[in-house]
Design goal:
alpha/beta, Peroxisomal Thiolase, Chain A, domain 1, 2 domains, ten-stranded mixed sheet, three-stranded mixed sheet, 14 helices, globular
Length: 412
Amino acid sequence: MPEETRIVITGIGLTAPNGNNLAEFRQNLLAGKSGVGTIETHYMGEVIAGLCDFDPLKYQRKKELRRGTRAGSVAVYSAHEAIADAKLDLDSLDKSRIGIYLGITEHGNVETENEIYNIKQYDFNVAVWSHHHNPRTVANSPAGEVTLNTGITGPHYTLGAACAAGNIGLIQGLQMLRLGEVDLALAGGISETPHTFGVFASFKNEGALASHPDPQKASRPFDRDRNGIVVSEGGCVCVLERLNEALERGAKIYGEIVGYAINSDAFDYILPNPPRQAECMNLALKKAGISASDIDIINTHATATPEGDKAECQALREVIGNNSNAYINNTKSYIGHTMGAAGALELAGNLPSFEDHIVHPTINVDNLDPDCALKNLVINEPRKVDKVDYILNNSFGMLGINSALIVKRFAE
């Protein structure tokens, strides 16, 4: 079998509840700064959530904002920031050879709920229903809005993969580059989830919506008293290139994607299956050609639900054993669960560790759950380590979709 084409990350654009670029995001992760607050939502009043504060008019006109979606704005902002970070001149590139692959958890809920809320004020007269509804709610909308804004004419689509979607967007970009379908991929994940009340209501009725007197402490993976998910929005788009082309143009390389895997629990609509999660991690390790002992950082998916965190820790014990030297952290403790963006955002926040050898911690762990007491779990304070050569990024989702991504420190 011929050696696979090497794929590298050369640009990162993001917006998170605690940062609008990688440098700001990383600084706040090391400083323990949360981006979680409260918002008002239909029918439920005040809820705990994480919102981004990027400037949508930086790359869009007001007309675009009126016709498009919040997810589209997050995607457009993140894509432009990634292109700028990669030092690419978009107008000098063949835009038909650029692909856009964005993971989402869900899309269309926000627009549908808002339109129903609006027509209720008019005795359900559908004449006031927005004629923009259909293009706003088609599943390719966030990626498609990027093409409309940038003039990119290559393939675009979103990948519905629940909360594994950010990783899966990156995996799809890598695969399309290896197939030769595109020469440049804008890949990652997007979420506008806090703008739909239904997600909050469903999590609350399920007993999985986080609560805490201090919103910034509500997202607390691995803590004995954790009580659910903080719903958040965000986006992260990475520029992916084939290594030889990145080297030819002298690009900065954040890391090389060397392993990945996607599998299914086939178990339950919501509850995770630790053996299948472990299988997914092992498949990614096999594809990377390394063992679990080679991994230096594991960014966990843990969402701060009692059963979910425990299940992932069980899976990790199966994969890495008790003698692993890997340092384990979690990003949702800072920003909540950014759903479709989570995998890509959480990976991005850890990539600077290749250079500074610092592992950002999991915050808000006041009483560690014994079932989550993994060796080298980095809690509340950053940890300086001797080396970081490999990062494993976990991202799992409802209906039992699992993803694992392994990025290596770049070395020619």
